[in-house]
Amino acid sequence: MAIKQGDRNKDSIDQRCVLIVDDEPLNLKLFTLTLIKQGYRVLQATDGYHGFVLAHDDLPDLIIMDVQLPKISGLEITRTLKDSAHTQNIPIVIATAFLIDEEKLRESGCDGYMTKPFAMKDFIGLIEALIGRKPQVAVTG
Known about the structure:
By secondary structure, the protein is of the alpha/beta class. It contains five helices and six strands, in the order ββαβαβαβαβα.
């Protein structure tokens, strides 16, 4: 299932978009609320297929990818996205509760890795480092 959160405001053209691909509702909620609070627009997918479709159709600025997903694994989706000229430049962070062999991570082409649970400060720091800067958000009064 694909869900769009924090629709793009016409006055905030530079608002950065993050796609979260995770089948755990609590993780989706936590990541989404944290990112929206930081000014990001958020897309959500609860399985690998929809994550792949959203990545291809919406071209987010960054993808947070779980490994254990229904239908197709996060590492397989990451490999596929990194092999496509259309999506290869989107940074992908693997966020999982499982220990993964570093060789498998390198083979997937991911740009970062975090083991759940992790501090939200570290999570935001990694996202900002990979995207390159904080999002620009219009302030209306």
